[in-house]
Amino acid sequence: xxxxxxxxLIIISGPSGAGKGTICAELxxxxxxxxxxxxxxxxxxxSNERKDRSYFFVSTEIFLEMVRKNELLEYDQHxxxxxxTPRKFxxxxxxxxxxxxxxxxxxxxxxxxQNYPDSILFxxxxxxxQALYERLVKRGSESEEKIQIRMARNKLELAQRHMYDYCxxxxxxxxxxxxxxxxxxxxxxQ
Length: 190
Ligand code: 5GP
Description:
Number of strands: 9
Largest sheet: 5 strands, parallel
Strand content: 15-25%
Strand order of the largest sheet: 2-7-1-8-9
Mean pLDDT: 93
Low-confidence stretches: none
Radius of gyration: 16 Å
Bound molecules: guanosine-5'-monophosphate
């Protein structure tokens, strides 16, 4: 019997407030054959986040245990918290021939690209720094101090966008999503 072709990793990164989450949700809606990885994090849930959907919210002890047991495909620490991709779900899905979306930061993305060279890396950009700032304020989940920390980190991430296969400007969610879908379909030869 012919074996199913292995799936690919689709990595979505970009500054806090660039609209990555909205674009991922739209990608999943328009391409139902994609699957989304759910990361583990030690940060506190936001009021609009659902347990085991947005993230697996875990204690630092449990997270470090996952690291120790090599259960994470990649992980990183930022904003005083750990974030990581559980390995088993992703590996299972790739084995079933499914393409898997990872919404992760730049450091994690580059780790993944090293280990999975056929991953497709997208960097989502916001039209301006002011637009990013306004989105973070509107989200209402972080203090001004934490927003400033995220804005500083955004600058560092932006400086690494040349490492990505594609930079996508999120001037409109509909247009940005269409651009990503067109690229994915072309890569699949559809
Ligand atoms: P937030 O706290 O806003 O949900 O996420 C902060 C940052 O962590 C974002 O840049 C997000 O892409 C990144 N992130 C979320 N999950 C993971 C993960 O599993 N691994 C890594 N390396 N970064 C992640």
